[in-house]
User: Fold RNA methyltransferase from Carnobacterium divergens DSM 20623.
Amino acid sequence: MKANKEIPVKKNEKYTVKVEDLTHEGMGVAKIEGYPLFIENALPGEEMEVKIHKTGKSFGFAKAMKRLTSSQNRVELQDENYTRVGITPLQHMSYPAQLDFKRQQVRNVMQRIAKLPEVPVFETIGMAEPWGYRNKAQIPVRKIDDKLTTGFFRKNSHDVIPMENFKIQDPKIDKAILVVRDIMREFNVKPYNEGPNTGNLRHIIVRRGYYTGEMMIILVTRTPKLFPTSKILPAITEALPEVVSIVQNVNPTRTNTIMGDENIVLWGRDNYRDSLLGNTFEISARSFYQVNPTQTEKLYQTVLDYAELTGEETVIDAYCGIGTISLSLAKAAKQVYGIEMIEAAVENAKNNAEINEIDNVTFETGLAEEVMLQWSDEDMKADLVVVDPPRKGLEPSFIEAVVKMQPTKMIYVSCNPATLARDLALLNEGGYSVEKIQPVDLFPQTHHVESVTLLVKK
Ligand code: SAH
Assistant:
């Protein structure tokens, strides 16, 4: 960049650039006099005419106007809308290139952040058909053209773009959303109006068990009162025979968070079922459950393979959710201890152990970092610690507790390469060697990178 830090581009001007790289969110990066421009729908190697739409001090954003050359990794867009709403930011990239991109993300952070460039990062395990995989949809409801309408938010905005086919969701879920939408229209339910915080129906959430076909419908409303339920509920269950549970979730607040704290079971059970690696799971409205079931099985199988259990081991599964990994491990271990902070998920987990007649597993409600610290203070010993934390990764106190407990092995399931690399560096310093990393594609067409890492006590 110029010494006086003058920005070398002007807003609304057009320039011809060559894309050099990709950000971790999958945006193309081109430079003008060293000034980086981020461009949607742009792949490395491509030359294009772009128009500047935003300039910051050290980088800007540009829109691709005309592509002059195309990358061999480019595939045709499924739909322009999908770029505008941002649910499939990699839809213009061929699937093999997406898998490669994700592997490269992990390699980059292992080099840049963890400073462990020699750790093997394997080829990303992908899907045969990388569309229609999501088992859960959370769809905003708004009034558009005077009608209750479902769709998705335009990127960085609160405007809903009407959409009926979401392409990455189970098509049966897409269909269910339209059925529920039409029933809501028929009975004059008021769509939520975000500005003044008026109206009622905010979101329609549909979750469906891949192996069971059981469906849960969650109607997120602003107020506890709801429509003529006596008419709406039979209409839904008649039109959608797979439905086993209809839950109302009340979210009165002005917030981007989709669900509120209050759940009211309107019809049927308070859970739906699915199975993974032969175990059956009950899942309640508030519980986390991986969104891509067939890839989740490959992820868990990788965990099992890395664990190499003989039946003699004591295992801790931290951030265990409804116990999906815990129960898969329990069949091959002596004893498994799960830790999870959401009470409802722990209840699901305990019940799931019972349903599957697994009795060598116990679940503890609490913060993983606190429970681990307590257990290590009590001199509890474990042979294997499995973690599957949210995007922010592990707390330093959790890592301290692991180092104190000295398990022989650790397996780190991560949904964020940056925090993974940060934590692996700390664990490496604490006496754990990072053996190998297996990325698994849980979120095709998006930039999200999931991986399994094996660590062994030095
Ligand atoms: N292993 C499970 C869940 C992974 S998602 C599965 O594969 O399905 C991460 C889980 O960690 C969520 O259930 C979340 O509620 C829980 N969680 C998040 N922060 C936590 C913390 N500090 N302590 C314990 N659990 C936590």
